[in-house]
Amino acid sequence: MEPEPDAYPARLEIDYPESLDRFSTLLRILFLIPISLIFYLMPVAPMFVVHAVVEGSLDENSAGIFALGAFFLPLILMLLFRRKYPRWWFDFLLELARFSYRVTAYILLMTDKYPSTDEQQTVHLELDYPDAEELHPLLPIVKWLLLIPHYIALVVLGLIAMFALIAAWFAILFTTRYPKRLFDYVVGVNRWTLRVQAYGFLLITDRYPPFRLDA
Fold first, then answer.
1. Whole-model pTM above 0.90?
2. Does residue 55 form part of some domain?
């Protein structure tokens, strides 16, 4: 599907489930163990860094430091000195982001489908491949700093999302349904987070992320 002309270069949609399994929801923490091992053994750098920054734990978390060094800094150097964003690098980060958000959707009870390592399932994530020549070569150095207002907003939105998740857990156990308004809100928080990642850490655009939950 072609994006709208004014669409942001990072887009996320998650299919709304008409009903969810009570048993899977009740024991979701246990079901998460196998996929969590895969998830944290993989270099989920771009997704992890922004969450670490938002939580204020980047300096204390070795995984965040590894992520910063392994992905973020080399990408800055490639854009700065070579004016290139290798297609293979982009494709890898795109699939990594898709896998990350499938796991996130499962954690947040938004689907009963066990996260696939390669299939799209109910999570639809798209990133536009950038033309490195059109990206400002020096802007990536300061993008993380320019995102401070977003970090603050995401901390607040994330806290609200935690309460929404607890409410959704009880709702699913009693009704098998994820309240639509809560679902849309949690999708919106993840969509906002993805745009912040795309701008400040995946570095695919110089377009500043909008302050909104909708697409």
1. no
2. yes
